[in-house]
Amino acid sequence: MLGSMAGVVVVGVGPGIGLAVARRFGWGGMSAGLVARSESTVKAAAAELGSADVLPVTADVTDEAALRAALDRVVQAYGVPDAVVYNAALIQADRVGDLTAKQHLDAWAVNVVGAMTTAAHLAPAMAERGNGSFLITGGMPLPKPDYASLSLGKAGIRALVTLLHQQYGAAGIHAASVTVSGGVGPGTGWDPDEIANHYWRLHTQAPAEWIHEIVI
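-> structure tokens emitted (216 positions)
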């Protein structure tokens, strides 16, 4: 065992929102399981967090077996998580007609199916325990024709949040999305550290105060 404190799992960690969320939850005394496709990316994120209780793991979210194995490694280290943050997305400019069917399926696999796999793997144990939060990074408050695949994916995320609430809300799982409506960058209106505070706010809300989407 690397530690005994259940904490947060961040799937799709990177130098922006994912790292900021892990840091914010670490300030709350929580361990962090970090999952990214690239070993260099996830190790860099762990190094940024310094001496925090962190486990970096690599997995491609489109590879179901690898993603489930990565999540199992985090659970074995820290126990069933208190919070799960799905932050993976394939962000690309495309219009209707630009992509092949296979390219659309590849985008959907990252933007939506990976989140479903993560929820399917972790939410039942969280529900059995009786509490926890499952938070997803959203975007595209309105569909944009120059970002067709991402618009479809973020609409799917909204539907998934609703489905998770319907299935697990009564068991104490708070499902919600943080919809980021602009380009993320330090010192902008979408500063990752400020965005991370919204995830913490959602995680710490009492059930009577639950909201299921924050748009920023």
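Confidence is low (pLDDT under 50) at residues 1-5.
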